[in-house]
Each structure stands twice: as structure tokens, then as C-alpha cells.
Amino acid sequence: MNDSVFSLKWLVKPKEEMNIFLMVVFGFIAPQRPIFTDSTRVIKLYLCTVSKKVILMYKETKQRCWQRFLERTERVSEELFLSREQQLLSHVLLSISRFKFLASPRGKQLGGVEMSDRNLLIGDVEIVRIVDAIVDYPFPLDEFYPGVPVENWDPWRKEYPTTFATEKTHRLVYTCYVLRSAGQTILVDTGLGPAWAPLAVFWQQTNAARQAFQLLDELQSVGVRPEDVQMVFLTHLHPDHVGWNLLQENGQSRLTFPRARYVLHQADWEAFHTPEMQALLPFDYIGVHVTPLEHLGALELLIKDSDLAPGIAVIHTPGHMSVVISSKGQNAILVSDAFIHPAQITEPTWDCMFDVDKEMAQQTRRRLLERITADEAIVYVSHFPAPGIGRIVRRDQRYYWHAREE
Ligand SMILES: [Zn+2]
Predict the structure, then answer these.
(1) Which domains does the chain have, with CATH numbers?
(2) C-beta of residue 102 within 8 angstroms of C-beta of residue 61
(3) How far is the CA of 240 from the centre of ligand 1 (A)?
(4) Residue 23 forms beta bridges with which residues?
(5) What is the whole-number distance in angstroms between the Cα of residue 238 and the centre of ligand 1?
(6) pLDDT tens per residue, range 140-165
(7) Is the pLDDT of residue 90 over 60?
């Protein structure tokens, strides 16, 4: 591995153009059936390990920021229907997360987050990993990956224990990315969304959301305000990738990122608005998160191969897209939902239940693996556990995921 690729320095040179290519890598994928059952409307809260330094910072600045925590916690609590005790706990958790940022020596440059935690430089392009949610999927593995016997997962349980919620179920991370270079800020995908988002409601009902609703806070932690985002790029229109597109205000939709163009592929826009596709969706999240983009004047559809902006080009086939970054001889590719689990890198025939065209999905995975290894590209993913960034190596005619060491 080339260590310089994982440099911790902030090296963006504003005059040099970001060189990002968008490549379509995947056919249609869509939910095939309603999948949720009722349960309690409570989200789990988990305590995290806190260093002495964080606690110290917390005490020192508690007074100054307390009001802000209260306001935010109240908002979140209302959304989640939290009990009094849960509200108190959430005060503590929110405080901890805030002071993690303050405790960092790089606070001035990047809102306080260590570059090594989730930032990566590819030439002059900075990739910042943003986790919106972590969800324990309720579907058994043999339903999630039809045709793959449960025992075939045994080696992967040992290899990637954090990708399993139980013996028979997955834990998926919902990841978005900020791309920054030459003064441009692009947000790739918008995650699960706020508590009222249709998918978020379902996950709360199934008690599946382990963490959620983090995108805006996570963006703030890396110094990105909503108005700083110039482009929201949507790899595809599944509900776990479009959730924070819009906010609700007095019953009206408004752009979460008010100055951004929302860029998606025309093929997805058209397909997800057909009655046939809508009938497959378990709820009308398209009407909530996507359709209003048009009348709000923020929608930009990719129609054919063309330059999107200086240094940004699009290669067009219908459906799902990846973002390929190429700068100063270094390459990185976002594979998004082409690979839901790292095991699929070694087993590209393991189709996920959301792959509509399974043959195309398998071909896509193989093609991607060949391209990634030929380009020696860094890979960043949508649903793997932290660090979510790594390389793919070929050994004995097979491919393997090598996660970046944290
Ligand atoms: Zn996804």
C-alpha cells in the first residue's frame, strides 16, 4: 500500500482542478417487497468509550455549549419519542460526540476531526467519510443473500465480526462522502435521513437503527455547513441514499443543502417514477425525498456522457453510478451498493436481495474488481464497517478486501 495516499496532511491546492470521473457501474436495483413489521418506536442508544481528554474538554466547555445541546437534544427527543431517562442519556451522548471534535488539535482546519479518522487524500482531492446511520438488518442472511447457504458465512463471521448483528443477520453502515478540492464541496449520497423519513420510521419500528440521523452533525464536525455544499450527487435512488435530500418546514419541503444542485441519473429518475417501480417500493419515499427536487429548482439530471464540471466527467449507462477520483496519478473509486458486504469481493456471485438484475450485478462486480486492481485504486464503500476505505488484492485467482488500517 502506498502510504502517501493515506497522508494525514491537508494539501488541497485551490488553483488545481478536482479531477473526478463518474462512472456507471451497475444496473437497476430495487426493493422487491415490503419488508418491515411493527415494533416499538424507540431507538437504541449506546454508550461509547470516552477518553480522559474528552471528559476534561467536556467539563471545561460544558457551560458554553450547554444550551446548544439542550436545543438539539430536545429536537431529537421529540422526533424519537424518547423517555425522560433516554433524553438525559442522549444529552450525555450528544455532549460526548461534540467534544470529541473539540478535543482534536486540527479543529481550526477541519472542524476538529483527525484526518486519520476518516479523511483521505487522493492527489489533491480530499475524501471525507461521513456515517449517517448504522442499522441491524432484520432479514436472515439466507434471505438477504438468496442462494448462499448460511454456513458459507462462517469464515466471514471471523473475518468481519462487526458486519454481523447476530449469527444470522447483518449490520450495515450507511455512509455518505464529502469530496473537497479546489474550493468545491460535493456530498455523495444523503443517507437514511431524519427520524420522520419513511425508511427511518420503518427502522425505528423494527428497532433496527443502532445509530441514526447523524449526517448534519457529522458534516458540521468536518467544517461543512449545509450552505457550503455545491453539489449533492446521488449514486442511485434507494431510500438509504437519499434520506437527507430535503427537510420539512410548515408542511413544505425545502432543500437541506440550499445552494446545491442535486445531480442524479435520468435513468433512475424516470425508472423510480414509473408505476411499476413505485409498486415495488415498500413506501413512497421517492415522493418525499426526490420528486420535490424538481419544483424546488435543484434537480439536475445526467442524460449522456458529458462533463459535469471542470474535471468531472460522466460515463452513462442506466442506473447506479460510482464516483471515480483520479488526481496526480492516484485513483479511488466509490463502489456504493455494488458490494454490500466485503465477502462479495471474494464471492462476486453472492447476490443481495436488492439486486434486481442478478446477472448484471455479478458482471458489474467482476468488471469492477478487474478495473480496481488494474488501476491499483483505493476503494471507498457505502455499507462496510469502519474504516470503509481500503484496497482490493488478488491472491490465488480470488479477490480480497484489505481495509485501511485505522
Ligand atoms: Zn445502499
Answers:
(1) 3-40+113-403 (3.60.15.10), 52-102 (no CATH)
(2) yes
(3) 5
(4) 315, 322
(5) 6
(6) 999 999 989 999 999 999 999 999 99
(7) no
